[in-house]
Amino acid sequence: MCTAFKRSKFVGLFIVLVLASMSARAFASEQPARIPDWLKAHVGEGNGQIAAAVLLRARALYLEKVAEGNVTNPCYFAMDATRPNKLSNGNTGARFYMICEAEQSFHAISAGHGSGRNLGGAANFSNGQQCAKNFGNALDSNLTAGGAYLTSEIKTSFKGYYRASPSQQAILTRSFVQFDGFGETANARQRKIGGHAAAKVSDICLQKKPESPYADNDGYVPFGKLVTYAGGRSDGCTSWSPSDAPLVLSMVKVNPTTLYIYPESRDINAVSQAVASGRSLARSGLYWNASCLKEIGAPKFWPKEKLEPIIAQFKKDHPAPPPRPLPICSNQSN
Question: Which residues, if any, are the signal sequence (predicted)?
Fold first, then answer.
């Protein structure tokens, strides 16, 4: 009975994947390059809309990978990292897009950008929470790198216990979807770049809980405070709110798709040059979110060839202190 059920479930999943593949391939071969009429309503620079430049590139990447047979998912993703992370009313800005053209669905959600780092006199490539000024693809830079990606495997890891209510503890496990990049983003796996929920356990101490499946050899588990940072920055990964992350991850769990993140280095350099010369971006055929451009002045791209030696030298000059053991929680009834 169980064997028959498993076979039936496998056959059903196989049929779903085949139909999804046929749907995606048919879409790629039949749809013209122009933006479909229903999708045009979502094109613009207002909150919840996607800029035409971003959509056209994301769509072109998706069609290319479907035509190559690398993608069968009927949906694809895009992100506009030039948009503000927070709006004037304090809400998070929607700048990550999930587009399913076969069913004519479009969803825009929030996503964090890379925090960058301030290495003092060596280099300062840090970003504020509102708008990203610095971008790059260097190891240990904590910067967002725009360009083409494919989603890959998903790994779920235990992060710790936290207080869910005065009388109850909860466990935080966080799923991470790996991104594989192309060209300037080809080192995404080496950089451990992917997507996950913007949640972590901080201020950790060790709590005695030998009955826990996550306990160490001495019977301790990490315990701390749950922190969500949907409106904050990341280490270069794409972070979604804890409420949005499950939907994004479910869309690529068994069927990878494309993700296009804007801007690439060519866009950053072109916009920077236009700003320096006083040229209009629109007249130059360039795009950057106007409010963020006003805040940052001009963007900057830090290529790995330039930045990685600086980071390596900084590490050499400022070696990290030896790791300290986590403290035992002062109140074991936490």
Answer: 1-28
| Cβ-based neighbours of 99, under 8 Å, separated by 6 or more | 39, 55, 58, 59, 75, 76, 77, 78, 105, 106, 107
Residue 26 in domain? no
Query: Structural domain of residue 281, as residue ranges?
Result: 40-317
- List the structure tokens of 105: 């669905």
CA distance 94 to 171: 28
Determine the Cα–Cα distance for residues 250 and 239; give it in Å rounded to an integer: 15
**CA–CA separation, 177 and 151 (whole Å):** 7
Q: What is the pLDDT of residues 71-109, one digit of tens each?
A: 999 999 999 999 998 877 778 889 999 999 999 999 999
Residues in contact with 305: Cβ distance below 8 Å, sequence separation at least 6, in sequence order: none
Q: What is the pTM of this model?
A: 0.87
Distance, in Å, from the CA atom of 72 to the CA atom of 58, rounded to the nearest integer, reads 15
Nearest to 136 by CA among 313, 314, 308, 301: 301
User: How are beta strands 75-80 and 220-228 bridged, if at all?
Assistant: unpaired
Backbone angles phi, psi at 155, to 5 degrees: -120, 135
Whole-number mean pLDDT of the chain? 89
The CATH number linked to 277 is 2.40.440.10
Model confidence pLDDT, tens digit, residues 162-188: 999 999 999 999 999 999 999 999 999
* Per-residue confidence (pLDDT) for residue 88, from 0 to 100: 72
